[in-house]
Amino acid sequence: MATKAARSKATPTKESGVRVEEGLSLFKSDKFDADAYVQSKCSINEKDIKQLCSYLLDLKRASAEEMRRSVYANYPAFIRTSKEISDLEGELSSIRNLLSTQATLIHGLANGVNIDDEKVSDESLANGVLNFEDNVLSDLEKWAAEFPDQLDALLAERRVDEALAAFDEGEILISQANEKHTLSSSVLSSLQFAIAERKQKLADQLAKAACQPSTRGGELRSGIVALKRLGDGPRAHTVLLDAHFQRYQYNMQSLRPSSTSYGGAYTAALSQLVFSAISQASSDSLGIFGKEPAYSSELVTWATKQTEAFSLLVKRHALASSAAAGGLRAAAECAQIALGHCSLLEARGLSLCPVLLKHFKPIVEQALEANLKRIEENTAAMAAADDWVLTYPPAGSRHASTAFQNKLTSSAHRFNLMVQDFFEDVGPLLSMQLGSKALEGLFRVFNSYVDVLIRALPGSIEEEEANFEGSSNKIVQMAETEAHQLALLANASLLADELLPRAAMKLSLDQTRTDDIRRPSDRQNRNPEQREWKRRLLSTVDKLKDAFCRQHALELIFTEDGDSHLSADMYINMDGNGEDVDSFPSLIFQELYCKLNRMASLAADMFVGRERFATSLLMRLTETVILWLSGDQSFWDDIEEGPRPLGPLGLRQLYLDMKFVIGFASQGRYLSRNLHRGTNEIITKALAAFTATGMDPYSELPEDDWFNDICVDAMERLSGKAKGNNGEVHSPTASVSAQSVSSVRSHGSY
User: Compositional bias (Basic and acidic residues) spans (predicted)?
Assistant: First the structure.
């Protein structure tokens, strides 16, 4: 079997053969430089070496699993064939013995040996006993006449060892008599028949005694050894296995599972019985029959059958009820107990865990899915009544002491608590290769929770009504204020960036004591699969961030009636009023600046230790407004092709607005490349539209310092800060801003 499995494993597929051929093409080249090749491979750094080692370990595990599946896929057919061959060998041996006996009889008849009817009665021949009426009998003939009676006495008194010795003695004397012709062939045939008949009788006695539950281990092994000495090894091995089966079946009668009993206790007791019986049967088989393939194959087939029966019992009485109720911990514990007992047999060469996994894995997966569904439903129910106020964990929570720095809303606290419990439940299931499935399932649940948070944004109501048919229509408490809406982001970002990856560390297969002294971030980044999982969690948070920014951008740009606060008319009409216009940023950008300031103040308290996330949020919101203006085709159609051209005052105001955006973004440290690119495009389009009127835009724009002073003054006035003496404005960003404007004025873009 091992040879066949190894051959099937070693046989490459066509695709792998092509890959190997491509990999070897480098070595077939005439220009191949061995030293250069080795040097290139040895120049990898420590990180690459670790990645290569991780890849090779994954490949090794995958190869071992593939080999195991291949072996078990073909093993039943191999065992069945081996059993049939063994049976055929036994039948051929019986036929050979019969032919030998008949050949002896025919040979005697051919030599003219005649049986005297007066010396041998019909009755004595039928009883297998020879009675000689002739007074002149040899000692051997007397022994032949008395030997069957001696055997009957030994069998009646169950003196097995003496009976076996007598059988051996009788066969030796028969062999000698046959060679020396000291007994007639009829006497030899009758004696052989008598011995064979009593051997069969003794074999039946031994087999019956072996299968009695009261037979002890030593008696069983002695009986099987005696049965083997009788010359029927296959039957002896079958009786040995059946005896162990009958014994543990008898002991199982005391195990009566009930609806109130603990499934783990029942599983532990039952697995102890079954796998102890398999272990003892394996030990007895090896001790009595050695490693002969036919017997080893029968042992594996028998052990597999018993494991299948055990799996069905545990599934029916312990796992099914736990899985149906979503009791992942109970189901996991039952499976782990059974797998633990079963794995002990691997030292004896019996790898039966795949048999258990075939039955246990689907039902434990059912419990896993039910548990995940419960987390999703409970969290959604909590979100329906969540006030979206950040608080520390409840004092009675067992996670309060370990998560004292984490402020979440009530639904997020509930979600985190259930996730922590979830990972404690699935930790033992790594042996069932459910780690990846657990991570994938939890990702789906977190994605569902993020969808709930998105629906809590006021702007999502209209979208749900527009797509009512595809909406899950779950009730959720609205986050009305900016503080409440930022709390939604605080929930999602803290869960995705810290709490969930930290909980998922319980799934790591390579945890050692050194993990306790590492920083959490180091441990989280150690597993490539978990790093990818964390990346997916953070990408889900981006959905919420985009929805948040889109909602606030639309609130700034549009009125409740659908009119726009950011239209081309606000710039075009400035040159037609004939009135002096105060140089100050447009109202919409003043509101944007104030909104960003408010959010920055709130985020400073909500995102402690995660200031980077708060900065990226403000950056995304500013980008959303500017990119919308840059891509609003109706706005630019009015600017470039409208009935009234863009005048000097309108150009100056648009330039000032973009300068103002760059100024406060730079001051708040959320000036991004996308924002810089967006303002560049807006200014470039405005300059091009103004140039199309035949005027020089740079002759109409004031000096750079003029824009800088107005922007700094506007930021201070809007933020409530006082000016310096004599009305002069002092800003640390003025020099940076002046350089930016100078660059735009020099190159015609920003």
Answer: 512-531
- Residue 493, φ and ψ in degrees, nearest 5: -70, -40
Bridge partners, residue 564, by sequence: 558
Place 104 in a pLDDT band, splitting at 50, 70 and 90: low
The count of other CB atoms within 10 Å of the CB of residue 483 is 17
Backbone angles phi, psi at 558, to 5 degrees: -115, 150
Tokens read off for 399: 């996670």
* Residues 6 or more apart whose Cβ sits within 8 Å of residue 308: 355, 359
Question: Which residues, listed in sequence order, are joined to residue 558 by a DSSP beta bridge?
Answer: 564
pLDDT value at residue 115: 44
pLDDT for the residue 24? 62
Tokens linked to 605: 């308290």
pLDDT tens-place string over residues 117-129: 444 444 444 444 4
pLDDT 10s digits, 170-199: 777 777 776 777 666 677 777 778 777 777
What pLDDT is recorded for position 537?
A: 94
Contacts 24+ apart (CB under 8 A), 649-652: 649/574, 649/575, 649/581, 650/571, 650/572, 650/573, 650/574, 650/575, 651/571, 651/686, 651/687, 651/690, 651/697, 651/700, 651/701, 652/583, 652/700, 652/701, 652/702
CA distance 158 to 205: 9
How many CA atoms within 13 Å lie on the side-chain side of 239? 26
Identify which of 242, 340, 325, 318 has the alpha carbon closest to the alpha carbon of residue 284.
Answer: 242
